[in-house]
Amino acid sequence: MSLPMAARIARRELRGGLRGFAVFLACLALGVAAIAGIGSVRAAIEAGLTREGAALLGGDAEIELTYRFATPEERAWMERRADAVSEIADFRSMAVFGDTRALTQVKAVDDAYPLKGAVQLDPPIPLDEALRGSDLPGAVMDPLLIDRMGLSIGDSFSLGRQDFRLAAALIREPDNATGGFSLGPRTLVHRDALSGSGLLEPGTLYSTHYRLSLPPGTDLDALEQEARAELAGSGLRWRDARNGAPNVARFVERLSGFLILVGLSGLAVGGVGVSAAVRAYLAGKTGTIATLRTLGATNATIFLAYALQIAALSALGIVIGLALGSGVPLLLAPILAAALPVPAVFSLYPAPLFEAALYGALTAALFTLWPLARTETIRAATLFRDALSGAPTWPRTRYVLATAGLLAALIASAAVFSGSVRLTLWTAAGIIAALMILALAGLAIRTMARRAHRIARTRPATRWALAAIGGPRSEALPVVLSIGLGLSVLAAVGQIDGNLRGAISRDLPQEAPSYFFVDIQKDQMPGFLDRVENDSAVSRVQSAPMLRGVVSQINGLPASQVAGDHWVVRGDRGITYAGPQPDGTRVTAGEWWPDDYSGPPLVSFAAEEAAEMGLSLGDTITLNILGRDITATITSFREVDFSTAGMGFVLTLDPASVAAAPHSFIATVYAEPQAEAAILRDLSDSFPNITAIRVRDAIDRVAEMLDGIAAATSWGAAVTLLTGFLVLIGAAAAGSSARAHEAAVLKTLGATRASILTSFLLRAGLLGLAAGIVALGAGIAGGWAISHFLFETRFSVIWPSGLAIVAGGVVATLVASAGFSARALAVRPARVLRARE
């Protein structure tokens, strides 16, 4: 049997220690640690969200209604099943203090709030005392909003037509993770204080949340089903403590999945180092393999012997990586818990560790199988002459097929764990394409250097550097592969980040409105339009009726069953109505309804979103608007451009369908920057209930989110680059003996230390420059593809970021080469040349 013999050989070989495998272990451990660390933090957040689900939600369960309060019958149903019910209204408004106006997210609560958790105020007074007030109703505010408006505790400010007294700063809001994206800091008031504010009129934009404190042991699944059955047609959205912050959980899952894919690119870079280490190790075992072959060892025995050694070392690297990936988050748990905006329970979680171990094992097998397989094709005589130089480039067919199988398994695993097949396939295609481009570039650099070194006759150092790059022992391929892929990832991240910021900060202001105005009542529209349309600084005004509704069914089936997790069916959507076809509306399919249409409900749907959801003309859409189901037939698709930050609706209904329903209007105003403050002041003074959303503030909030995402992605890409640098060090270490021999020969022929060192550094710099240029090209291509196909934004090359990548390639190779070059120069020529005899 070859296996027992191979195991015995492998065990004896491993007695020699781990010399030569430092880079192998470091590359594998670093990649596994990055993935395990990301997964462990994700698992900690998910555990925290699960444990604190009730506190994050503010109750054991929540029923949310769109722009209306529960009917007496609905409220009675809740009170029969819950120990306590808390009613909350949530909406945006303008806080006014003197001449200062700021957008705020208002939460109007009742006496039962909060059912779970506690509100923390500064000064530390009870919430009911803070909201009770004395001469005026009390309110508490986010410290950021207090500072922005220049308020002090005890000052009065207004929301709509109601004045409030600032009683305290809102330090902690227990259910703040459930609100999702918000354009303004929080203001907390009592629900009863808004009765005369004009902010909760029929048709205005607000949502109500009914938090339920349930008896112990309540079956949440059964209660949810009962709620949907008993309150059918109410348009309710249900959440419970099992997933208290679904938006946060979804964001964490998607971001961590993306970061793990970035971490896989680091493992791919590490794979290059792993492959190089195995190749160098086997080259050093020439005599041993030759001896085993002459003593009768079969191909299978030799292959298994060294495969077992590599497997044992891979297991060690994976264990080290798992220890780092799980241990570092545990050690930094207090710091991470304080930095994260959501609760996290740090512990050892098997699932992310298994995922990281699987990735590590598949990567190690993928990158070591090829060099291991090549040993079978070498004759004993060839082994005695020169290591693996006589081996064919391609191993036997079965190993090529096995390599393809391992690659497929790695991609399939990433698709399953990340939850995004499309993103995984694009990432895998990008990594494979980058590796192929870098490999071809490395070979091209060798060819060009081989031809160019003859030209540089008057510059010896340059000639030596080019000859070394183009020679048979050239480091071009491993250097370009190792540092190039890491730089490619960083370059792509830099280009994507720069273009997203450009789309937000550069492109949008040329087209975007100054303000969105919402909650304009129908009788306020004449006065509103008179103010803005007669202002010479206003270039354009758009207005439309505005309702909000939930897409509950498509063709009689639940909307999520037909459209999946598409954003149109995930929450409530903006809906408008129009009689004649509005100016500028381009119908791409179907026909608009007649001007005087008064038949069954009809709807015009946004063409791009309809295609994504698989809708066709004649399909029916059921909308729940203010608790009433309206089923409309799709008669046309139209082009809707959301990229300009202007007015756009996915759904436009015929007027007869919804015109009688309570609703308000929205408007966009395009004005010169110097006139914005006066417009806001005049409109808020005349119409206190109107809410103005400054587009620049919304852009800044999106930019803040991009900062966090870009920082997280950059850290992931930095791990890839660090792995590439380790591979560079390994390549430099592997070539140190050849570099020492080269220096000894040149010294013997009269070359100075300075000229030899210049040659070594020039060689490293040229390779780093080539790797940086190729990486820049790959990063630009990847950034363009993602910007164009995924984000659908215009793309332009961000040259400062790109040039920094090129400079980084040069610096990295110089640093990796410098230490080994100095060691080579310090060796005496006689000792080196005698050893080569």
In the residues, how many domains can be counted?
4
**Backbone CA Rg:** 33 Å
Strand content: 15-25%
How far apart, in Å, are the first and last alpha carbons?
41 Å
Number of strands: 21
Q: Unreliable segments (pLDDT under 50, ≥5 consecutive)?
A: none
Reading side by side through the largest sheet, how are the strands ordered?
2-3-8-5-7-6
Q: What structural category arises from helix and sheet content?
A: alpha+beta
User: What's the average pLDDT?
Assistant: 81
Number of helices: 28
Major pleated sheet: 6 strands, mixed, barrel
Shape: elongated
Helix content: 55-70%
Pfam families: FtsX
Main location: membrane
Organism: Aquicoccus porphyridii
Domain ABC3 transporter permease C-terminal: 261-374, 717-825
Describe this structure in words.
The protein is an alpha+beta fold. The protein folds into four domains: 1-58 and 244-419, no CATH class; 61-217, no CATH class; 421-512 and 695-837, no CATH class; 538-671, no CATH class. The protein is 56% helix and 17% strand. The strands form two sheets. It has a six-stranded mixed beta barrel with strand order 2-3-8-5-7-6. The chain has a six-stranded mixed barrel with strand order 12-14-19-16-18-17. A hairpin with a 2-residue loop joins strand 12 and strand 13. Helix 26 runs antiparallel to helix 27. It starts with a helix and ends with a helix. 46% of the residues are buried. The model has no long low-confidence stretch (mean pLDDT 81).
